[in-house]
Amino acid sequence: MSPYEISDCASIDFTFNSRRTPVYATKGMVATSQPLATEAGLEMLRAGGNAADAAIAVASALAVIEPCSTGLGGDAFALYYSQKNKKISALNGSGKSPQNLSLEKVAALGISGSLPKRHALTVNVPGALAMWCDLIERHGSLPLSTIFAPAIRYAEEGFPVSPVTAHMWKEDGDEVLKTSPGGSALLLNGEAPRTGEIMTSKAMGDTLRKLAEGSPDDAKKLFYKGEIADKIVQIVQDNGGFLSKKDMAEHTSLWQDSIKTNYRGYEIHECPPNGQGLAALIALNTLSNIELDKIGAPDSAERLHHLIEAMRMGFADARQHIADPDVYACPTDKLLSRKYGAERAACISPDKANPDSRSGVPVNSSDTVYFCIVDKDGNGCSLVNSIYMGFGTGIIPDGLGFPLQNRGHNFSLDPAHPNVLAGGKRSYHTIIPGICLRADHSLHSVFGVMGGFMQPQGHIQVITAMLDDDATPQEALNRLRFCIEPGEAGGRVCTEEGIPEETVEELIRMGHEIDIRKGYNRTIFGRGQIITRDAKTRTLCGGCDPRSDGQVSGIC
Q: How far apart are CA 430 and CA 451, in angstroms?
């Protein structure tokens, strides 16, 4: 009998036998999980727009064509690199929990352990629209009427549903949409659309048209203080949630400084907490003390063991310290210090797993979309938009055409935890965009791997591939991956079918609990995109994850 479990899902093939090569261009590039969304971004670049304009065109298009993963009812985080001043700005578009929500009220409802996954109680203020508008106001150059035009066209005229999206739509649609308030708005004759079927969303088209009529500030007023806010609040309260008009009206995005660590002479930047980018940086800071290229091939047990152990430590610290920055002062500087990285590296045994990794700094008292753009001037945008689980709560406000997220499920109900549920608080967030700079602060790459708690794990795997092994973006994304599930230090290690059997056997001998994933179950390993920029020639090189329906395309 095999010592490890093999999980399978035969309904869709993910063996990645087709060959993908990097895409090269010079005057702009867009990489997304959907070809139609990539085209929306290119449309903006051809119209004279920049990376910010293209990013929001992509975000709005994905809200229409991949509503199981993203949309106006969710949150978004972005990193934006300005070629002019060679600086990165981080934009936190996550919303707060209802101010009237509390542990006491949850307990009075008989709820313990965690909030129900699909309940209206988990609906925080959706921050995506404000984040889109704030990015355009600071960095964009085109009007919303132009930026939203492709998404409106897809919503009103229809779009063919792609294979991976159709599978997700079916999987989550049967479970969520058929039983959720308003869920039928995203079904086709009462069923999830199949691959190639044409899907339209008049309600979503109408919503985007209204938002596109004025300035970004006008759009925010309509969404957070106008009729859209009224409809969101009404359906949440009708289904037992606490979201109020006051919660919506007081929402703002946060412009922040990115956090970073140095890895092999490059600066790796992430958004600060309440996002989990810190977990990836802690792992990379740990690995910077280890010469990976000298301890084994990329698919060897020795190499994977060190990556897994570093990631366990990253998760241990992240789970202990990531929370709303307005409520908890995360010791980021200490966690990313060179001294701490060396201490954590010294804790890694070369041949023995430690699933009981603990935080080294005690407390003081995936459904998502990722995409990236680099424009002709060298500005780069790395952006993640999410409604958390597939279709979020599945609750769709009347006439709006988009589901509301269930991000509040990430709150802890432990009163002593920094991420404890409280009113008016941002929860722990899984969504993290990444940017890599050279020592002179020129742009090396915009990168990300969507997929819940896979995201920091994907970040360290593609970054080590590019910076330790000189892999191209496509080669880095093609590599078989591991995933510690469910994003906790002590979780079991899922590996992709195709990793050498001797590697798996050696990891088991080291003490890792292994679960080999194949078929559709490989989606646990995320879906990423990467664009690099050559410092001398300014040539752009892009890759798109073979686990997605996506496409990278450029302009010359």
A: 8
